[in-house]
Write a structure and sequence with these properties.
The complex is a heterodimer of chains A (70) and B (241). With 70 residues, chain A is an all-alpha fold. Chain A has 1 helix and no strands. Chain A is rod-shaped. Chain B is globular and about 70 Å long. The chains are: A mainly alpha (70), B mainly alpha (241).
Chain lengths: 70, 241
Amino acid sequence: MPALPLDEAGPYVAAAYLVFLGLVLVYVAIMAAKLGRLERELTELNALARERADTAAPVTGGTEEPILHE
Amino acid sequence: MYGKGLRPLAITTALVLTGAFALVFFWAPNDADQGLIQKIFYVHVPMGIVALGGFVAAGIMAVQHLRTGDARWDLRSYVAIHLSIVLAVGVLITGMIWAKASWGAWWVWEEPMLVSFLVVFLLYATYQPLRFSIEDRERQARYASVFAVLAGAFVPINFAAIRMAEAYIHPRTFATTGGGLPGDMLITFLVALAGMTLLFATLWKYELASKHATFQVRALRRRLLGEDELAPVRRSAAPTL
């Protein structure tokens, strides 16, 4: 089969490379969403650890820092 | 620590892939027969090779899991299969685009290369449902590893069978006889293949690091709240450590 002229072949080539780029971007976006969820969980756990440290401090008389810091 | 060395790996991947695409569009000559559409080859074939290589690598990791019983090998195998499926989707779509431009049809059922790749893809498409269907984590990991080993062994057998098939119109990347690719095209192809392999390695490490961080957070939550306060773990296809 003879080669397609440049103006006809161009969109096909662009589409193939955009598919690749799109797949990578979708993958990164999904991973970014997971990272966001992880960050929210860590913030929540950090707050919990601080709360625990604050309530435990008067009882033990210690001045321990919370496990996690922002 | 799966995140170790991720940054230099990611930078190298970005550089090599950018270099590869620069070579594709500014250095590699247009194919005398196919013209510009042959440029699709530089993204389609490396994706295919890396996807199939990923399936085989996942099989080897699954063997390690079955030998040692170490759940980390199951996780590595799971992530490798997951990424290979993503790349396989890319192979199928870019292949269809190339087929439409070159053959005038999106799909040719008589062509063994296309159909066999679809068979491999569909085979691995059952991996996640298989995992999800088994509730017991240990059994899930063991069955998934057996699947990964058997399917991983099927990939090179399938590849060899297609190379031996006689009736085909799909071009062969590396001709079994004759000259094959000319030098500048071959260099461009090899750089693209290196870039795709590095991308696979980067995303594999990235996903493993992400999953490991999730497990660490879960363990921290367990320590802070205790087992009783935790919501029951949802049924999932993904492995846990």
